[in-house]
Structures are given as structure tokens and as C-alpha cells.
């Protein structure tokens, strides 16, 4: 990989991991729309590790409180503390996608073996879930924060996250949509989505790591390290500015972006499939 490829792919991962526009779709699309070779599993893992570092650093104070109170809730069997309840919400909302990811991993991979078919699946998902995000933001958005989640809310968001296994859906996009749907504010839905990304990125990185160990290709450690650094810096800035401006800009710019990108993908990849 050239330095330009490393920087572009790492920045794409860092920016799109936490925006509701699908990071996996962009990482797959970049080599499809350029003459670059596929970046490989090792670099994908590095880019995800960078995103994980960013979210852990940004929410380090909240995570420390949640971890401590979660352990205390187990020891005391008292679940009244709000940080403990939020930690349990993250745990329970992660279980559906964890089980579904293990069960459907082969199905998702087989759907992407043909680049054109994979691109069309992404295009449909980009457009369909853009409309869902727009509807939730306009019709259902409330003023509650992530600490006000009920167990019903957590289950809805958790099962909605399973839809992120469909390429192009966007994990952050579908969880923010579900959060808005149950009445969270834009910031509350976004913050809970970012916290949910921690166990999901760990699980996804673990699965990719197992696949990477089975491949004979050598790892480019310089590219891996640079991928982590650029992805972490970009993701941290993305989280900060997204939360700072989301109440002002709303979700519609992301809705428009998803629809436009989906239409472009249809324009590029639909004719070869129909031919």
C-alpha cells in the first residue's frame, strides 16, 4: 500500500465509523471505485482498532464510571445506579447482533463475493435506511438522554442493530435511528450508539483477526501502525464535532448523502448486472 492509500482508507474508516453513512460500505467501495488493490484484512483490523481507541479515549470518564458501577451492581445486586443501568443497556443491546453476526457471517460474506451484487445491496440499504433515519428524526425524536432508556428501548435498539449486518446499512445509522424512534434526543441517541460501538468493534475485530491468521499473506506492519494512528485521530475528531453540531445540523445532511451515494452506486453497478 502507498502512503496515499493508507491515509485515505484510514481517514475513511475514522470518519464513517461513527457517522450514519456506513463505514464498511465505504471501505469496500474505495478499492471498487479506484484501481487500488483490496487493502486486506490486516489493514481493516487496524482501521477498526483506531476507531476503538478513539471512542475509548473520548468516553473514558463515562466508561470508567460505567465499568465500576456495573461491577458494583453485580456485587450488591443493586441496579438502581444510572451508570450501572447504562452499562447493562450496552451489554443487553449487544447480544442480538453478536449472536446474529456469528450465525450469519458466511451469508454476508457470500453476498459480497460478486462486487456488483454487493454494491447493489449497499445501494438499496443506503437509500432505504436513509429514509428510515429521516422519518425517525422528523416524527419520533424526543428530548430524553441515554440514561433514560427503558429495557423495552434497549431491546428495540439491540434488535435494530442486527440490521447493520446488511452491507450499507451503517451500524451507527441504524442504532441512532432506533434511538430517535424510541424518543431519545439526537445527542442521546448518538452517544448511546457510540457506546454500543465498543463491544461491536471488539467482536468484529476478533472475527476478522481469526480470518487474518488463516491467510498466508504477510502483514505490512508499517501500514498497520499508520492505519491505526490516522483512523484514531480522525475518528476522535469525528465524534467530537458530530456531538458538538448534531443538534444544529440535524440528520438530514446524512440522509441526503446516503440517498445520493446510493443512486450513484445504482447508476454504476446496475447496468452490468442487467446486461
Strand-helix topology:
Layout: H1 3-16, H2 23-33, H3 41-58, H4 60-76, H5 82-111, H6 115-139, H7 151-161, H8 171-181, H9 186-213, H10 221-249, H11 252-274
- Major sheet details: none
What are the low-pLDDT stretches, counting only 5+ consecutive residues below 50?
none
Instruction: Find the structural class using helix and strand composition.
Output: mainly alpha
Shape: globular
State which percent range the strand residues make up. under 5%
* Relative helix content: over 70%
How many structural domains are formed by the residues? Answer: 1
* Gyration radius over CA: 18 Å
- End-to-end separation: 34 Å
What's the number of extended β-strand segments? 0
- Counting DSSP H or I runs of 4 or more residues, the number of helices is 11
